[in-house]
Amino acid sequence: GLTPQDFKRSNAPVPKSRTDRIVWVDDKMMPDLPGIRKLSDALVRFVTLFTEEVQREGHSLTVKGNNRPMLAVYDEGSFFKQHIDAVTPADPRSLTLTYYMNNRWSQEYGGQLRLWPGNNRHVDIWPEADSLVLFRSDEINHEVRPSKERRRALTIWFNKF
C-alpha cells in the first residue's frame, strides 16, 4: 500500500502554482494497490466507450492511449492555480479525467475544481466521493480552489497522439 511518505510535492514548472502532494502510480505499484488498479481500468474503459460514442455521433475526438494514474492529496490550505494541462502543441494530452475519493464532502470545505470554459465564466465541481469529471486538457483552463479539509483525487490523462 501507499504511505503518506510516498506522496511528494509536485515539481510544477511555475513555483508556488500548486501545493498538493502527488504520487504517480506505475505498473510496479499496481499489484500492491488492487483497488487503484480496478478503478483505473474501469475509468480507462469508460473513456474508451465515451470517445467511441462521441465519434459515432459525428464529432472529432481521438484518444490514443493514456498516461499512468496520478494520486493527489490536497492538505488543508492546498491549491493549484489556474492552468491548462496541455500547454504546448507537443503535449499529447487531450482529455483529463479526475475521480474524487472524499467521503461526506461539504461545500464549506472549498477545494472545488473550477473550470473556465470561456466567456469569462466558470463552473465549480465539488470533489464529492465517487464522482468524476472529464474535460478537454488542451482547451479548458482550470484550477483547484484552496481546501479547508484533506482532499483526495485520482487523475488520468488521455492522449490524442
UniProtKB/TrEMBL annotation:
Q: In terms of domain of life, where is this protein from?
A: Eukaryota
GO biological process terms, alphabetically, are: cellular response to hypoxia
List the cofactors. Answer: L-ascorbate
Molecular-function annotations in GO:
ferrous iron binding; L-ascorbic acid binding; peptidyl-proline dioxygenase activity
State the InterPro entries in the record: HIF_prolyl_hydroxylases (IPR051559), Oxoglu/Fe-dep_dioxygenase_dom (IPR005123), Pro_4_hyd_alph (IPR006620), Pro_4_hyd_alph_FE2OG_OXY (IPR044862)
Q: Which UniProt keywords apply?
A: Dioxygenase, Iron, Metal-binding, Oxidoreductase, Vitamin C
Q: What residue stretches are annotated with the Fe2OG dioxygenase domain?
A: 65-160
> What is the designated name of this protein?
Fe2OG dioxygenase domain-containing protein
Q: What's the source species for this entry?
A: Alexandrium andersonii
